Amino acid sequence: MVEETIFSKIIRKEIPADIVYEDESVLAFRDISPQAPVHLLIIPKKLIPTVNDVDAEDEMTLGHMFVVAAQLAKEHDVDKNGYRLTVNCNSEGGQEVFHLHMHLMGGRRMQRMG
Ligand code: DGP
Questions:
Q1: DSSP code of 69?
Q2: How many CB atoms lie within 10 A of CB 98?
Q3: CB burial of residue 101 (10 Å; 0-12, 13-18, 19+)
Q4: What are the pLDDT digits (tens) for 50-92?
Q5: Which residue numbers are catalytic?
Q6: What distance in angstroms lies between residue 32's CA and the mean position of ligand 1's atoms?
Q7: pTM of the model
């Protein structure tokens, strides 16, 4: 069974978030606990818990998330210096919210991945 998370409430505007982008399939908002000067979360409106749950019908939405990421990076002026896009999966991947999301982090030099 697929359980809703706090992100479903953000999509439905039942709890506040600093929303920076929205369209019919994707929402983006500032991370509540930013790890970089720019730290956005880009999520599909469809509840996909983890990358393991992705299927072929999600290809358009997931590809669209990259288009939105590139647009947001420009708008937040991190495109030239660079930024990191991260999708965590399950416990060893560091996933805490089980609604698939892409982190967009920029505005500082990222550490090596570890
Ligand atoms: P992850 O570890 O990849 O599952 O990242 C989850 C992120 O979600 C984490 O960086 C903090 C953020 N987050 C959790 N709850 C909320 C919330 O209620 N509002 C916002 N804006 N961000 C949240």
A1: H
A2: 18
A3: buried
A4: 999 999 999 999 999 999 999 999 999 999 999 999 999 999 9
A5: 101
A6: 6
A7: 0.98
Q: Which of 104, 105, 109 is nearest to 36 (CA)?
A: 105
Q: Which domains does the chain have, with CATH numbers?
A: 6-106 (3.30.428.10)
Q: Is residue 114 within 6 Å of ligand 1 at its C-beta? A: no
Q: How large is the C-alpha radius of gyration of the chain?
A: 14
Nearest residue (CA) to ligand 1, atom 20: 32
- Tell me the CA distances in angstroms from 81 to 16, 72, 76, one per residue in order: 30, 14, 11
Tokens 């288009």 belong to residue: 67
Task: Tally Cβ neighbours within 10 Å of residue 54.
Answer: 17
